[in-house]
Task: inverse folding
């Protein structure tokens, strides 16, 4: 027997190669097989219980979806147009289109969504808020055609909206969100993409990018994918519901056939919080003189806030951030909408189509505004805004808040009363504002803190549209 000597570097190289081969041909296939078994088990368990079924597109492999998008006829036309317009080589334009497709297309994993994601969303939501489902039009929701493409249309109060709605809607459907570029941070990007979200450059003026995004949204809608959109296009910086930006909804409507086999159904969703986590950051955006906040400063602020809350919890002085409530309104069928107006959106000239889209957008945003929950903090904030700097006794606060709640109810507002007790609800709202020193208590009298006028208005504005 002869021995063979090898240099150490060659031995290490061979060992790395063998390890990589084992991982590629044994470990990774085993992990994929195990995950596939888990996904199949989840689908067998949840599939029959979901009100909105999972379409095949939702379960397709990501590479398959990217290839479908790359080779789509309209994407090819957009590539040709961009090459002619810019003078760029066709192959480079095709590579850009493929890059956009890879950026946009999600990689949905049913196990991560319904097991890991749902558990995390529920745990986080319940640890921070008293989460409540206020109202749901169960009859209308049950009447949605099984094959319809469902779109949840949501007002945008906080980045926490994604977590809250996904948690409360998990028994009905698996949502596919349009997520802004803020979430494109590793490893958050991988998790969000596996939860079925697709990334959107909200202010991109690149016509090729817009064409690829449009075709993905249309393919998803045509395949019956359940989507969730925030028509305001961003967070409300003053508490009021903003005018809708209808880019994604325009993509869904543009190729819709009122006589086709699949309807598109919009479900209005109203959200409100007793405390919005980013409220002071949002108010800062209203000040044109405020210096932009960099990543490090934003991270330091968030870390400081988390440490402060942890210290309060250790001392036994921490309270959850009040109530977070979601209402699901009456579905709006796009097929019935266009049949009632006698319009086929595919055949409208550009000007008329835009006018019809504006009309539909107003209808949707008003449907959302009508079901935004009225929560305790908003009612009490509205009382102190109306009173100015005049101090009030506790009984006077309750009397004014009760009268306001009655007015809101007469105007059709959906008021959430904790424990069904109006007095307790007003106490909760007042306590939250006092704890944050938005309202000051001196000698048994309560008054608005002059230094916190903006934030008081922010919470009052969430229900101001009911009083307009």
Result:
């Amino acid at each position: 027997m002869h021995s063979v000597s090898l240099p150490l570097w060659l031995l290490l190289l061979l060992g790395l190669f063998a390890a990589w081969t084992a991982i590629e041909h044994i470990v990774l296939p085993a992990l994929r097989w195990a995950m596939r078994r888990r996904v199949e088990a989840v689908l067998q368990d949840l599939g029959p219980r979901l009100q909105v079924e999972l379409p095949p597109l939702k379960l397709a492999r990501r590479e398959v979806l990217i290839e479908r998008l790359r080779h789509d006829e309209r994407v090819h036309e957009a590539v040709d147009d961009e090459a002619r317009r810019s003078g760029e080589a066709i192959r480079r334009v095709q590579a850009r289109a493929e890059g956009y497709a890879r950026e946009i297309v999600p990689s949905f994993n049913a196990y991560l969504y319904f097991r890991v994601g749902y558990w995390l969303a529920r745990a986080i939501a319940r640890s921070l808020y008293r989460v409540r489902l206020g109202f749901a039009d169960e009859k209308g929701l049950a009447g949605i055609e099984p094959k319809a493409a469902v779109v949840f249309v949501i007002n945008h109060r906080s980045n926490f909206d994604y977590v809250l709605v996904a948690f409360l809607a998990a028994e009905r459907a698996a949502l596919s969100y349009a997520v802004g570029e803020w979430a494109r941070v590793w490893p958050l990007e991988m998790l969000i993409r596996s939860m079925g979200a697709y990334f959107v450059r909200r202010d991109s003026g690149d016509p090729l990018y817009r064409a690829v995004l449009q075709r993905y949204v249309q393919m998803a809608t045509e395949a019956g994918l359940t989507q969730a959109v925030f028509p305001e296009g961003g967070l409300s910086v003053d508490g009021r519901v903003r005018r809708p930006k209808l880019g994604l909804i325009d993509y869904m409507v543009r190729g819709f056939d009122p006589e086709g086999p699949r309807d598109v159904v919009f479900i209005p969703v109203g959200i409100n919080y007793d405390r919005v986590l980013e409220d002071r950051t949002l108010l800062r955006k209203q000040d044109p003189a405020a210096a932009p906040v960099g990543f490090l400063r934003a991270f330091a602020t968030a870390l400081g806030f988390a440490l402060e809350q942890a210290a309060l919890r250790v001392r036994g002085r921490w309270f959850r951030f009040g109530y977070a409530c979601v209402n699901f309104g009456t579905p709006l069928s796009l097929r019935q909408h266009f049949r009632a107006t006698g319009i086929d959106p595919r055949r409208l000239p550009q000007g008329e189509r835009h006018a019809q889209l504006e009309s539909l957008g107003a209808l949707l945003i008003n449907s959302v505004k009508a079901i935004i929950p009225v929560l305790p903090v908003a009612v009490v904030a509205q009382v102190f805004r109306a009173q100015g700097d005049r101090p009030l006794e506790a009984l006077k606060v309750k009397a004014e808040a009760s009268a306001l709640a009655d007015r809101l109810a007469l105007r059709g507002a959906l008021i959430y009363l904790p424990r069904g007790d109006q007095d307790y609800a007003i106490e909760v709202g007042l306590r939250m504002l006092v704890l944050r020193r938005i309202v000051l208590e001196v000698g048994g009298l309560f008054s608005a803190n002059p230094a916190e006028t903006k934030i008081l208005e922010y919470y009052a504005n969430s229900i101001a549209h009911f009083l307009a």
